[in-house]
Amino acid sequence: MAAGVAAWLPFARAAAIGWMPVANLPMPVAPTNKNKHQDELIILNVSGRRFQTWRNTLDRYPDTLLGSSEKEFFFNEETREYFFDRDPDLFRSILNFYRTGKLHYPRYECISAYDEELAFFGIIPEIISDCCYEEYKDRKRENIERLMDDLEDNKDSKLPNMTFRETMWRAFENPHTSTMALVFYYVTGFFIAISVITNVVETVPCGSMPNQRDIPCGERYTEAFFCMDTACVMIFTVEYLMRLFAAPSRYRFMRSVMSIIDVVAILPYYIGLVMTNNEDVSGAFVTLRVFRVFRIFKFSRHSQGLRILGYTLKSCASELGFLLFSLTMAIIIFATVMFYAEKGSSSSKFTSIPASFWYTIVTMTTLGYGDMVPKTIAGKIFGSICSLSGVLVIALPVPVIVSNFSRIYHQNQRADKRRAQKVQKARLARMRISKSGSSNAFVHSKRNGLNQSLELTLPYYKMKLSPQGSLEEDQQLKKTTSLLESQHHHLLHCLEKTTNHEFVDERLYEQGYLQTALQNFPSQSPSLSSEEGITGTCCSRRTKKNMQPLSATHTHTHNLQELSALHIQCGEQQPLNTSRSSLNLMSDESGSLNCKSSGLVTTAIISIPTPPSNNSRASPDAPPPPNPDAPPLPNPGTDVVKISAL
Amino acid sequence: MSSRRRRCKRQLIKFTQHIARLITGTLNSDNEDEEQESTTVRYHPENLEHLQSQTHFSRQELQLLYRGFKNDCPSGVVNEDTFKNIYALFFPLGDSAKYAQFLFNAFDKDKNGSLSFEELVCDLSVLLRGTTEEKLNWAFDLYDINKDGQITKEEMLDILKSIYDLMGKSIHPRFKEEAVRQHVRMFFQKMDINQDGVITIDEFIDCCQKDENIMQSLKIFDNAV
Q: Which residue ranges does UniProt annotate as crossing the membrane (chain B) (predicted)?
C-alpha cells in the first residue's frame, strides 16, 4: 500500500467507477469498514510529554509500530493513552514523519540514539528524505569508522597458538609488537638510508688527482661502493623473501605496491651482476641504476605521512587529471598563438609549435626562466595573457588537493568518494525492494487466496474447499491486513477484472515471454469468461487440452498457500501428483504461453507447457532464468508453472 | 521599417549594458528576481455548510476528506502533475499517466487546469452516493475525450489502452494491442445499438441499465469514505 496517500484512496476508488461500464466481468465485493467509528484523536504520552494526533495519521504507515496493532501493547487503560518510555525529543521527528510523509534527521542528535529510535518504532532509515539523508549517511559512516578504529587498537594483544608464519607476518606489519620486530624495522630503515646516501655520494666529485679532472667518488672507490651496494641489496633481498614467506596470501602480496617497489629496488643490482661482461648493453644497463633511487620509496613502510600522501594522490586522481587536461589544452592553445605571433620576428627562438610548448609551460607556471622571450608586440600581449591564465588554471584544483590531503590525514583511512556512489545505489536498491514489497503485496495476498474468497458469483471458492490448516491462516491474514490495504487490493482486483488479466510478479514476466511467444502467438483470442465458466467458452484449444475444472484448480491453489510460489495450473494431465514434489525444486522456467488462448485461470502470461512442447525449453533462444535463487533444474515432468511471488 | 530600427536600437542598448556590467563586475542576479512573479496560489474552499448542501456527504466525512486533501496539497488545488503522481502511487506496477490525465479532465469541470476541493468533492459525491444514472453520466463524460457527446472507436481505444496500461508489465505489449482491440470491438457490439460507429449518451445509459453486471458493480463503492 502506498504510504501517505491514504487520504486519496476514496478518490481513486471513485474513479474506478469509470472502469465499470467497460468491464465484462462482475466485480469483487468491496471490503467493508467494520469499525465505522469516526476519526478520533489519540494521545501518545512519550515520557510525560503528550502528543495528540488523529488515528488516521498513524494508520498511514501500517508496517510501523504506531501504525499497526503493535501499539496496543503500550496502551494504558487508566489514562486511556498510549505510553512510550522513550526520548520525547526524538519522538517529534518520528511523529512528523507520519504527519508529513517525510522523515528528517535533526543534526544535533546523536546518530546511534536516532538509529535506535527508528529501530524501535519500526521505521527504516532509508526513508529519510533527501534533504537530511546525506548528513545522516556521513555521520553514520564516521561513527562506524570510529568504532572500527577503536577495535583495531585492541587488536594488538597477542593471540595464543599462532603459527610461526603468522607471528612473522604480524611482526612485519606492526613492528611495535615485539622487540625483534622493532630491531628488524630499524635495521632495514638504516640500510635504506645508507643505500640512498651511497647512491647520492657516488656521483660527488671527491678529491682531484693532480693529473686528472675531478672524478666522482664512485669511480674512485669502486670496490667500497660495490661492497656497500651488495650489503644493502642482500639485506633487502632477505627481507623481501621473508615477507614473501610470511604473507598470508602470497599472490596478493606480490601484487601489492610495496612488494613491487621492493623488487624494483633490488633488481638492477642482479641485472648488473649478470650483464657486466657485455660492453654494448652496459650503456643501457647504466640507466637501470636510476631505478636504484626507488629504494627511497621503501621508506613509506616506515613513514605514515608518506603513505597518506600516496593515498591522497590516488584519491585525487580526478582532480589531478583535470589539472593535467586543462593545462594541456591551454599549453597547446598558447603555444600555437605564440608561434604565429613570433613568426615574423628575426632570430626568434620560437622555431616551431613544440618549441613554443616550453615557453608556454614555463610562463604558465610562473617560472619565467627567460631563455625564450617574445619580441614582437603581439607576442608580448599574448605572453602576458598566457601567464595570467596560467595562474588561474593552476590555482583551481590545488585547494581541492590540499583539503583532500588534510581530510585523509586526519581520518587516516576514510572511504573515498567512489563509495558514495555505491551507497546511493545500495540505498536505492533497498528502497526499491521495500517499495516492490508493497507493490507485490497485492500479488502476495492473491497467493494467499484472500481475493478469491471475495468473488461475487462463484461462492464455491470459499473456504470449505480448503483444508483446515489454511482456513485459520486465511482468517489470520485477513485480520492483519489493514482496511486501507484491503481496499487498495480490492481496487487492483477490480482493475484485473476490467482488463481480464492478472497482475504477476515483474521478474518472471521476462522469462515467460521469450520462450512462449514463439509458439503460441497466432492463436490468441482472449477469452473473456475465464473465471465464470468452466464450460461455455468458445476457445477451441481448450477442448483439445482436456482442461480440468476451475474449482479444482483453485482448490489446489488454496492447498499450496504455505509455499512461496504461486501456482497457476491450466489444463494438464497429472498436476496434483507431480506438483507437490516439484514444488521443492522451485524451477522457475515458465514454459510456454498457451494459457492465454485457453484462458482458464487467467488470460495473462503464465501457462502450462504441454508435454509435446517440452523441447521448447531446450530452444537456444530461451533466456537463462535471471532469478539467482532458483536452481536451474528443468523438470520435464511437471506441468505446473511456478511463479515466485517474492 | 522604423519598428525594425527601434528593435535594433533596443538590442544595441541591451548589449552595451551587458558589456558595461561585465566590465564593472556587478552581480546580475537582481534583474532576474524582479522578473519572477510569485506563482503561489492561495485557495480557500467554500465553507462547510455550503459543501454539505451540495453533496451527499455528512459533516464529519467532509472534514475527513478535507484534512487528507489539505495535507497533501497545502495550496488548496491539485494540478495535473500532482494528480498524476498521486495516482501513480496506487498503481505501482503500471503506467498510470494517461488514465490519470483522462480522469483529471473528467474531474476538472471548468477546465482551468487545476482541481479545487469543491470539484473533487462534488464528483466524489456523485460517484459514491449518486444515482446510477448520474454515475453513468460521469462515466460517459470520462470516455468522451473531446466532449462532443459521442464516443467514437478511437476515443474508446485510447481509454481502454490507458486502463490496460495501468496493469503495466503484467500484460505483454504485443498481446495488449490485440486485447484492447478485441475489448473495444466487444464494447461497441454491446453498446452501439444502431451500429453507426459512435455511441451516444442515450445508447450508453440504455445498454448499461440493461446489463445486470454493470448495475451491480456500480454499487460496490457506495460505502467508501
A: none
Q: What is the pLDDT of residue A371?
A: 92
Give yes or no: residues B19 and B116 share one domain.
yes
Number of domains in chain B: 2
Residue whose C-alpha is closest to residue A569's, from A540, A587, A590: A590
> Chain A contacts of B86, Cβ < 8 Å?
5, 8
Distance CA A554, CA A534 (A): 12
Among residues B70, B215, B180, B45, the alpha carbon closest in space to that of A603 is found at B180
Nearest C-alpha in A relative to B219: A17
In angstroms and rounded to an integer, the radius of gyration of the C-alpha atoms of chain B is 25
Are B11 and B71 found together in one domain? yes
Same domain? For B149 and B70 the reply is: no
Please count the residues of chain A: 646
Q: A513 vs A103, A466, A509, B51, B107, CA distance in Å?
A: 41, 32, 7, 52, 38
Report which of A637, A616, A634, A599 is spatially closest to residue A513, judged by C-alpha positions. Answer: A616
pLDDT of A595 reads 38
Q: Which of A8, A11, A53, A594 is best to mutate for the B interface (most B CBs within 10 A)? A: A11
> A39: which DSSP letter?
P
Closest Cβ–Cβ partner in B93, B127, B168 for A14: B127
Clarify whether residues B84 and B149 are in a common domain: no
Contact list, A56 vs chain B (CB under 8 Å):
64, 67-68
Question: Which of A30-34, A91-95, A335-339, A453-457 is predicted least confidently?
Answer: A453-457
Instruction: Say if B57 falls within a structural domain.
Output: yes
Tell me which of A13, A22, A56 to substitute to probe the interface with B (most B C-beta atoms closer than 10 Å): A22
Same domain, yes or no: B113 and B143: no
Model pLDDT for residues A45-94, shown as the tens digit of each residue: 999 999 999 888 888 888 888 888 888 888 888 988 999 998 999 999 99
Both B137 and B124 in one domain: the answer is no
* Whether the complex's predicted ipTM surpasses the cut of 0.90: no
Chain A residues with CB under 8 Å of B105 CB are none
Q: What is the pLDDT of residues A389-409, one digit of tens each?
A: 988 888 887 888 888 888 777
Q: Does the beta-carbon distance from B90 to A20 stay under 8 Å?
A: no
- Collect all residues with Cβ–Cβ distance below 8 Å to A485 and sequence separation of at least 6: A1, A62, A441
Q: What is the pTM assigned to this prediction? A: 0.47
**B17, B116: one domain:** yes
Closest CA of chain B from A359, distance in Å: 30
* CATH code for the domain in which residue B212 is found: 1.10.238.10
The Cα–Cα gap between B177 and B172 comes to 9
Distance (Å) from the C-alpha of residue B3 to the closest C-alpha of chain A?
42
Count Cα atoms within 13 angstroms, Cβ side, for A401.
18
> Does residue A32 register a pLDDT over 90?
no
Task: Give yes or no: residues B8 and B85 share one domain.
Answer: yes
Measured CA to CA, the distance from residue A349 to residue A340 in angstroms comes to: 12
- All cell numbers assigned to B15: 548589449
Host domain of residue B62: 3-23+50-96+109-129
CB–CB of B72 and A5 under 8 A? yes
Q: Quote the DSSP letter at residue A373.
A: -
Across A306-315, A579-588, B84-93, least confident range: A579-588
CA-nearest of A346, A331, A236, A370 to A292 is A236
The DSSP bridge partners found for residue A165 are: none
* Residue B140: inside a domain: yes
φ/ψ of residue A179, rounded to 5 = -65, -35
Locus of grid cell 650503456: A283
Contact A547, A569 (CB under 8 A): no
Q: What separation, in Å, do the N-terminal and C-terminal C-alpha atoms of chain B show? A: 67
